[in-house]
Amino acid sequence: FLWKVLRIQELRNVNEHFLVNCITVDTSRLVSQVDKLLKAGDNGVDFIVQQLQLLIKDVYRQLRRSQGMVPEPSLAVNLNFTILKFSVAYWDILLQRSLDLMPEVPRRDVQYFITEVTSVERIRYVETNQ
């Protein structure tokens, strides 16, 4: 497992969402592995999709355990990566592909999106990117 969840932060009543969970994720090991795949001539897409699915399942489990979470239409999960390697738009494509291939439970009634760890105010990001 190449992800490390560093922090889970709750933001309530952001835009139309009742709750946004900002999950800070250390992606350094993943990016290192992707670099190796790219050097070997592999595009790394299948690998990243598989890793994203593992991350989503793990985050969903952690949220359910810590909050007794029952997904509702206003729940959003911001995966806040320490290192992006690719553009946010490309990550969004990979994220959507990962979600499309997953069973319904970790994705039903939950909106996922990816950002990079920055000093930008997260609430403002969520409001402008919905």
Automatic annotation (TrEMBL):
Residues 20-130 form the Spo16 protein N-terminal domain. GO terms for biological process: regulation of reciprocal meiotic recombination; synaptonemal complex assembly. This is Spo16p-like protein. The lineage of its organism: Eukaryota, Fungi, Dikarya, Ascomycota, Saccharomycotina. GO terms for molecular function: DNA secondary structure binding. Pfam families: Spo16_N. It comes from the Eukaryota.
